[in-house]
Predict the structure.
Amino acid sequence: MSEYNTIIYEPGPVTKIIHNEPKTHNLSSAEFEGEFIDAMKRFEKDRQAKVAVTLANGKHFCAGHDISFLSKKQTWKPGEKVEWAEDTWRFINDPRRLDAPLWDVTKPLVVGAQGATLAAGIHLLMLHDIVVMGENAFIGTAISRVSGAFGGLLQMWLGYRKAFELLNTGWNFSSQELYRLGAINKVVPDDEVVDAAVRYAEIMALMPLELLKLQKQSLKFGMNLAGAREQIWHNQETNTLIHCAPTEEEKQFYTIMKTEGMKAALDFRDKDFEKYGFNRNKATDI
């Protein structure tokens, strides 16, 4: 695949892979995921490429999956069976499509994130090796209030208690909080995200390629012994189970989306949490 619709690929010792769908807030679509992994394979094969930097054009790094398609594809009426059977969900949630290939990249991966990184976008963010975020950037899993969750994978970076808090409240976590937890490497002013991410990559590109790969392999070996690879697979199994047996809240959420629109559905999802200070557009204290 030499040309892409959703990304910009800039090869070199520091290779840049830029998600270029700002109008959709860089949703993680099937097309994007396919193109992104294809670009990663090109990066892996390129002997001149040492470090890849993932960036995104626009206000937000990644708004997660396009949840509006579920209101169109699924039958969410109470008592009716969902339209997509288990085999369809297992194909959609197969970790071999994005998570496992990204985890297995042997060279260093740096990411720079601005704005919101939501739901599935958090996978994309955290599966990199070096994470730089803007001072107003945040991650959020508010969708876990009604629908798919991706549980244990977050433990690797946030620890059990904070991962539990994130998933079971749907709150947004600021870049400063993530840095305090040791989940990311650096917080910089929003307009310096690209430069800071590229700086990390340029410094690492001064290292011999084989040392970079061996040192990453050694660290990943320890992570895998601690269960990281198994968690990647179990994570998607959880997603499949959730969608094959949707809650009444999930059915209502997508029914509202289908009949009244996205804003009404998000208001339904978040209204009971807003009285405690939740704001879907930024990080607030719980």
User: Anything to note?
Assistant: The mean pLDDT is 91.
